[in-house]
Design brief:
By secondary structure, this protein is an alpha+beta fold. Helix content is about 50%, strand content about 15%. The protein has a 4-stranded mixed beta sheet with strand order 1-2-3-4. A hairpin with a 2-residue loop joins β3 and β4. α4 packs across α5. The radius of gyration is 22 Å and the shape is globular.
Length: about 180
């Protein structure tokens, strides 16, 4: 878990390092232990106002693919620097016309020990066609919990940041000015 200040520094580094014309706007940077995901807004394709939905969808898909191919070298150069500096993989995504597309991103293995009742839940999701595998089913469950507990998770993350600040002020913290001792006269 990183602090708000570290997140702001990370966002600032990317905002300063990305080529000026890469995105219309840097919309989101998400980070965890393994990965930094950078998402920016790109311009929508110009279409007639009465363009059919299928044409609009195909145009958005084409714009995303064009952006991905055209900017690959620039994004890879920034990613190499960031991966060296922040020790995490960098993944990319775009927003275009209300649609979000993520490019290749990390699928990190998660160590878990599930008892039979939990495995039965995953197997039911597979049998019901919701997921293809237990791994898929577990990811589905995590997304479901995330969607329904976003406020609670935000509050928990804020609490963890507070704990990190308090720990940093503990006896092992390095003060800017060491306290005066009787030996220093």
């Amino acid at each position: 878990m990183i602090t708000s200040e570290q997140r702001e520094q990370l966002r600032g580094w990317f905002a300063g390092r990305l080529p000026e014309d890469l995105f219309e706007e840097l919309t989101e940077i998400t980070v965890d232990r393994e990965e930094i995901t950078v998402i920016g807004r790109i311009p929508e394709p110009r279409l007639a106002e009465d363009a059919p939905a299928a044409e609009r969808e195909a145009a958005l898909e084409g714009r995303v693919q064009e952006f991905r191919e055209r900017t690959r070298e620039d994004r890879m150069a920034v990613a190499r620097e960031a991966e060296h500096r922040f020790r995490r993989k960098v993944s990319w995504g775009v927003e275009c016309g209300g649609r979000r597309a993520l490019f290749t991103h990390v699928a990190a293995p998660v160590m878990t020990r599930l008892r039979q009742p939990e495995r039965q839940v995953l197997d039911t999701l597979i049998a019901g066609g919701v997921a293809r595998s237990r791994s898929d089913a577990l990811a589905w469950c995590v997304r479901l919990v995330q969607r329904h507990t976003d406020d609670w998770l935000t509050e928990l993350r804020d609490s963890l940041e507070h704990v990190q600040r308090v720990r940093a002020q503990g006896p092992d913290a390095r003060p800017d000015h060491p306290p005066h001792t009787d030996d220093e006269e």
